[in-house]
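Onboarding guide, step 5: your first structure request.
Type a short instruction followed by the sequence, for example:

Predict the 3D structure of this protein.
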Amino acid sequence: MLFLRRLTVWFCETLCEATLITVFLTLLWWGEGEGRSSLSDSLGLIFVGTPFVFMVGSGYLITTALFGVVWRSPIAWVYPAVAAVLFVLHVRFFADGWTAETKIPVQVGGACIVAACTFVGNQLLRRWVQH
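The system replies with structure tokens like these:
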């Protein structure tokens, strides 16, 4: 039963991360609005690219599933820190064509989003397991 609860919490964390990172990238993109050829093409790429291409294509889902479902530390901050580091590493290697000017805000903002989502997920899982 604990495995199913961990899987459910991990799935919710991942869904929340994908949604918030997509919003974050949209806001970053919106701030750089000059020189864009088509609003719909760029927004479509952001909305489709974030959850599907990055999270699945880079192996991020597999590595976070290993740490989030199979192994969870009893220390509250360990899994969020691990997930944030995994996010930064996956962005570093997956977004190879990006410049540092583009990559660093995505890494910092994404790591904060991932850490926050996984920390909240940890707290919810602990309460759920106690009941």
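Each response can be followed by summary notes, for example: The two ends are 12 Å apart (CA to CA).
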